Amino acid sequence: MEFIASNFAPIMFVGLICFLILGFPVAFSLGAAGLFFGLLGVWLDIFPQAILSVLPLRLIGIMANETLLAVPFFTLMGLILERSGMAEDLLESVGQVFGPLRGGLALAVVLVGAMLAATTGVVAASVISMGLISMPIMLRYGYSRSLASGVIAASGTLAQVIPPSLVLIILADQMGKSVGDMYKGAFIPGFALMGLYILFIAALAIFRPKMVPALPPEARTFREPSGSHGYASLGLLALASTLVAIYLGTHMEAVHSWWQGELVEFVPTDEKIVVAMCGGTFFAWLIAVINRVTHLGLLSKLAERVTFVLIPPLLLIFLVLGTIFLGVATPTEGGAMGAMGALIMATMRRRLSWALLRQALNTTTKLASFVMFILIGATIFSMVFQAADGPVWVEHLLSKLPGGHLGFLIFVNVLVFFLAFFLDFFELSFIVVPILAPIADKMGIDLIWFGVLLAVNMQTSFLHPPFGFALFYLRSVAPEKPYVDSHTGKTMAPVTTMQIYKGAIPFLLLQLSMVALLIAFPGLVTNNLDKQIDVDLNAVQQQMFDQLDQGDSSPDFNEAPSLFAPQEPAAPGGSSGNGLPGAGDAGNGHSSIGVGGESDDPMKAIQDSLGQ
Predict the structure, then answer these.
(1) pLDDT band for position 200 (50/70/90)?
(2) Exposed, middle or buried: residue 540 (CB in 10 Å: 0-12, 13-18, 19+)?
(3) Which spans does this entry mark as compositional bias, Gly residues (predicted)?
């Protein structure tokens, strides 16, 4: 028994692994391990029985957590958009634009995957939609089966890191950080990962053109009466829209100053990107509306089609992410607006039905219940693990790693990479992150950057052969047997499971490269966050002394009645009776300056309070 008592934390961790190996669901394994070792710890007198009485309060706290409401909101939004045909319209329109290029269809899948990620945040919806729509088209025109599979699966996983991502919500909740800050930090890394995918496809188009053939002329459906495809009109509209966005981006401080009525000298990069993008798209939409109403022929059919297909999801992106980044709405409120916007878009497209709504609500309820049960189990386990000084054991274990911060980061990422073979991102977030985050915080590592780094790493869990969930989703919709193509009438070969696995490996390596880039250049995350204002309390103290020492050596109470007049004692929490903030409000929030309280000498009261 002494051995168990002295090694309680590592034995508890091994016990959890045994529960998981036996095949029990993760949520029940966490809860069962927590309760079993909790009772064992009380019996061995490792911690008091009162620890278990805290459990109901912790569970009630989970139910009252408003941040987690964003999970069902964003899930419902994504499911409604996916089932209302938005992905199909986007793939058709963007495919027509890039089809004439080698690798154009693959580029269209990546771009549409990023747009679906920014509007849905659900990997399953993105992978299944693009698998059903784009896979037959890519195979029809001679794309490599492995490449087509890898592009679809990898593009669907962008929903993990591009806001509004569900995993970012969970990570922010587990780390005690703002979801909005987590979204801001992941904004540029998410789109940088998309850029790596595009560069890889472009390299294949140059060096392996047979793998990514261009779309033949007969497959291009949008034609003008003159026989042209309308690319010139689309290019001019895109150029004008880009110039408007660049102008807004470079003059964003002036725009904010005009809007707020005061001088604004700094605007975060993510806000510039979102507002500039929305300004450019609004300009394009305005031109398209004028062209349709007046029949002036300003735009080609292709340009008008692309504009009206792209604007609604981009508007939804601004409604959700723009309001969060600009501080207008919380992530939960943004998710609620996004769900309502998805319902409005589906209604306007005449795709909303009771059957669709019922199916989306059913799936949303299942996912939200899944997350809640895992969180309850993880809370039980972590509460007992912390009572047994488990974090101290983990900290001592990891503090002995060579290399300091870099060694810690390499070890953590290798650990998460291998755990992702067996656990999905929800399970990793609830089991691993609560253990690692406090250690990273003590080592001085920015938790927002650490969270984004883990999110990109956990994204690989969807592409791991043979356990990647994105590969399972694609396998469920990819043809397993020979089939007859509906357009050409030819018999097409199936897509094998090994081809899906082979196609995922290059994109898995690209994701690991993104992890390395984030470790090497943390500014990709931290530069997007709001600048923190550091207050030098010593300078504040000296300034107060200088002001009090001016003139007479003793203060004139008649000249400063608002500060030194007798008043009621300070209320608990750090504010004095006249409403002035105490030292706790300016500093750590635990002490207060009761000026005019018990001491008759105000200078002595200030010195005593600041000296505490």
Answers:
(1) very high
(2) middle
(3) 574-587
CA atoms within 13 A on the CB side of 5: 8
Question: What is the C-alpha to C-alpha distance for residues 558 and 341, in angstroms, rounded to an integer?
Answer: 60
> For the chain, what is the mean pLDDT?
78
**Alpha carbon distance 388, 48 (integer Å):** 10
| Cα-based distances in Å from 440 to 446, 464, 520, 527, 543 | 8, 26, 17, 19, 36
CA 134/CA 144 separation, integer angstroms: 13
What is d(CA 277, CA 229) in angstroms, rounded to the nearest whole number?
Answer: 26
Cα separation, 35 vs 385, whole angstroms: 11
- From residue 321, give the alpha-carbon distance in Å to each of 314, 316, 342, 360: 10, 8, 14, 22
Provide the b/e sequence for 310-334 (b: ≥16 CB within 10 Å): bbbbbbbbbbbbbbbbbeebbbbbb
Q: Using the structure block, give the residue that is written with the tokens 């503090």.
A: 399
**Cβ-proximal residues to 334 (8 Å cutoff; 6+ apart), any chain:** 70, 164, 319, 320, 321, 323, 324
β-sheet bridge partners, residue 483 = 492
Q: Which tokens sit at 312?
A: 């609604």
One-letter amino acid of 516: A
H/E stretch holding 495: none
Radius of gyration of the chain (CA): 29
What is the C-alpha separation between 197 and 459, in angstroms, rounded? 14
CB 469 within 8 A of CB 123: yes
Q: Which residues pair with 492 in a beta bridge?
A: 483
Q: What is the per-residue pLDDT across 139-185, written as a single tens digit (0 to 9) for each?
A: 888 888 899 999 999 988 888 888 878 888 888 888 888 888 888 88
Instruction: Provide the 8-state DSSP code for 215.
Output: P
Q: How many CB atoms lie within 10 A of CB 302?
A: 23
- The DSSP secondary structure of 510-535, one letter per residue, reads HHHHHHHHHHH-THHHHTTSPPP---
Q: How many Å apart are CA 48 and CA 241, to the nearest integer?
A: 65
With tokens 């009645």, the residue in question is 561
Reduced to 3 states (helix: H, G, I; strand: E, B; else coil), residue 167 is helix
> DSSP 3-state helix, strand, coil percentages of the chain (rounded to 5)?
70, 0, 30
In this prediction the pTM is: 0.73
Contact at 8 Å (CB) between 153 and 463?
yes
The answer to which of 92-101, 118-127, 249-258 has the lowest mean pLDDT is 118-127
Task: Give the ranges where 176-300 is alpha helix by DSSP (H).
Answer: 179-207, 231-250, 252-260, 269-294
300 touches 96 (CB < 8 A) = no
Residue 393 tokens, joined: 């054991």
Q: How confident is the model at residue 476 (pLDDT cuts 50, 70, 90)?
A: confident
Provide φ and ψ at 133, rounded to 5°. -90, -50
430, 170 Cβ separation under 8 angstroms: yes
Instruction: Give the pLDDT score at 608.
Output: 52
